[in-house]
Each structure stands twice: as C-alpha cells, then as structure tokens.
Amino acid sequence: MERPAISVLINNYNYGRFVGRAIDSALGQQTPGVEIIVVDDGSSDQSRSVLEAYNGRVKLLFQENQGQAAAMNAAVKLSGGDILCFLDADDWWAPGKLSATAAAFHSDPQLSLVYHRLQPMLTEGSPTLKPIPRSLCSGDLSLRLSKSAGWWPFPLTSAIAVRRSAWDVAGPIPEQFRISGDAWLTGIYPFLGGVAALPDSLGFYRIHNNNWYRPIDDAAMLRKRMAHWQDTVEATNRFLAAHDLPARLRLTDHHPYRAASARLDGVTMRARLRLAVEAFFFAGEPNLPRRVRDALRTARDLPRRGLDIGLTEPAK
C-alpha cells in the first residue's frame, strides 16, 4: 500500500455532536495521498456510533481517557504521512486547507511548522470575532521566542501542521500538556526549523465553555493560564537542554504572565508604568500598533494595589 503524503489527525473526546463535521471537512479536501485518523479518547457520549459510520473511510482508534496529548500521540503513532495535520473534533477546515499546507512545506524543506488563521465560531456555527491569530510570524522564530519566554501569537491545534522529521526529533507530546498539545507544538518546533504562516482563514474554531479562548478571563482562569505558562517555560528549557540547543527561556520575559499577576494582585503606579513600557517592547508581539494598544491598555486597566480588583471567582 502506497505511503500517504499527509496524515490528518483528529482527536475526539465527547464531541459526538461535532466530530462528523470535522471528519467531513477532512474527507472533502481535494488533495491526493491523504489518510485520516481519528482517536477517540474514552468518550462517554454518542461518539462511537458517529465514528463507526465512517469506518472504512478513516482509521479509528478507541482508547481509555488519557487527555488530548495522549490522543494526538496515538494518532501520530498510527500515521504514515510526512506531513502531520492536527484537527480538534469540535473544529473544521475550509476547502483547500491541505493543498495550501502541503504547498508551503514543499516550497521550503527547512520548515518544521506551517499554520494558518482560524475563524472563531459560536457553538451553533455562526462566525464571531476576527480571525486568529491576528498577528502572523514566519521564518526563524527561535530568537523571538528566546526573548519572550516562548510566547508569540501562536496558532491553535486545528491550524497546525508539522513535518514528521521534526516530530521524530521532538518526540511525543509530554503528558503534562494533557489539554494543550498546541502549546508544545508551537513552543518547541520553532527551535527545530522555520515556521510559515498562511494568511487566510483555512479553518473554523468553535468557541464554547470547554476551551481556553475567551474574551474575558476570571481570576481562576488567570491563575490557570499562569500555571500553564510557567510549566511550559520549564518544559521548553528541559527540552532545549536535553537537545544541546543554546536558547533558554526566562519567565521574567513573559509579559502576559507578568500582566496576569498584576491583574490578580494590583500594582503601584510605578509598576503600572513599567509594565506598560515592557508591553511596548515585548518581543512576543511582532505588530507595532498592537504593542502600542497593549501598552495603553496596561497603563489604563491594571487595578491599583490594595483595591478591589473586580475579578470574579467561579461559583462553588
């Protein structure tokens, strides 16, 4: 049997009401040499019956619940393509996504990761907000990430494709990225090769209560993000050291982390101005107007220390 050129890797957990659209969007791509693998991570809803209807057109694996990272790793292990394209079960792709991704990889053998924008969608499938990420980054991003503690306007899982040879170097996604496999891919792969950003929205990202992307964070979500950012910096530094790569990340360079801490605790006027200046020069945001916007928001919106910061805690 001829080896596929592209592997589509779909991870699913209790998204039986959505996963059919994800699979259909992959089956509808007019690109030769494609295999589709769906790993169900221990769903307890109607996912199995939905997925079994596709048996014969896609490869199916049902496993006990282990988290997104384990599902993505299992899918890669089953795959044979030189290009690995990830898709969350609650998202879907536009026609032409795979052909555009393949063309980008073929144009530059040094690329480790190719991505595109996603159009955010409400649960029922209507568009909302502007395509993400707003800023795009291409080329050698290793220096930028070294100066920003690994933060950049990175794409989400359903927009990411990586070269298998880079996956073989990086190895499976660590278990600590149980619900955020994209953070590993976007944090490690820019140190292994070039990155190409495709400007079009070639996929659709469904926003609901189970994901990270939301307009406003409460206190609990801010703490969760901060813990995740710290863990990611530590995991990245372990990887860089293990592979004798010279770069090292410092959490003090991670402006979103520092701003989140200030949002939780409040700041003095002096600290507010210092954080605003840091936002203006932050290496993680390549777009100057957005850095200016972030600096102004920092100067205006951070709460004063000792006052009610106005962040809600989730209901018990």
From TrEMBL:
Gene3D superfamilies registered for this protein in UniProt: Spore Coat Polysaccharide Biosynthesis Protein SpsA, Chain A
All copies of domain Glycosyltransferase 2-like, residue ranges: 7-114
Keyword annotations from UniProtKB, A to Z: Transferase
Residues annotated as transmembrane: none
Keyword Transferase: yes
Pfam families per record: Glycos_transf_2 (PF00535)
Single GO term (MF): transferase activity
Protein name: Glycosyl transferase
Organism per entry: Rhizobium leguminosarum bv. trifolii
